[in-house]
Amino acid sequence: MNLILIDLNVQNLDALQFKRTENLRLLYETGFANKIAEKFPGSTAIVVDDFAKGTDTTNSTIEIIILQKDNHSSSETEFKKYESQFNRPIKFTFFKEKQNILPLDIKKKIYNGIVLVGEVDL
């Protein structure tokens, strides 16, 4: 079997924008965003890091920050089907929405991420 591997030209802004668009399309078209809205009602979900930037690879983890209005008890195992569908792990990090003090690195991720569901209150 002949496989041809190609790398994304991360220096090309158009390529990165296209990749980001494709990543978001994947999250919406598969129902992943709707599942988050259903399981964490009223919360905000933000895609962060490589997947949000479009610099992800097949080895990258899809990272999602959930800013919760209330403590919703939903198991991350409900999202396992999406991990197999996307062929990569999904990592959720949870914070209370009105938490006054967030670590600086988390704030930076939120500011540079893409809101998938909900909105961020400053």
Could you characterize what this model shows?
Helix 4 (80-86) links the parallel strand 2 and strand 3. It contains 5 helices and 4 strands. The protein is globular. Strands 3-2-1-4 form a 4-stranded mixed β-sheet, sandwiched between helices. It has one domain (13-117): Beta Polymerase, domain 2. The chain is an alpha+beta fold and 122 residues long. The chain starts with 12 loop residues before the first helix and ends in a 5-residue tail after the last strand. The mean pLDDT is 86.
Question: What descriptors fit this protein?
Answer:
38% helix; four-stranded mixed sheet; Beta Polymerase, domain 2; 5 helices; 122 residues; 19% strand; alpha+beta
Summarize the structure.
The protein is α+β, with helices and mostly antiparallel strands.
Percentage of β-strand residues: 15-25%
Sheet with most strands = 4 strands, mixed
Please state the structural category: alpha+beta
For the record, give the distance between the C-alpha atoms at the N and C termini, rounded to a whole number.
Answer: 53 Å
Name the CATH architecture.
2-Layer Sandwich
The unreliable regions are: none
Helix content estimate: 25-40%
Give the total of domains.
Answer: 1
Number of helices: 5
Q: What is the string of SSEs from the N terminus onward?
A: HHEHEHEHE
Please list the strands of the largest sheet in the order they lie side by side. 3-2-1-4
Could you tell me the mean pLDDT? 86
CATH fold category name: Beta Polymerase, domain 2
Radius of gyration from the CA trace? 15 Å
Shape: globular
CATH superfamily: Beta Polymerase, domain 2
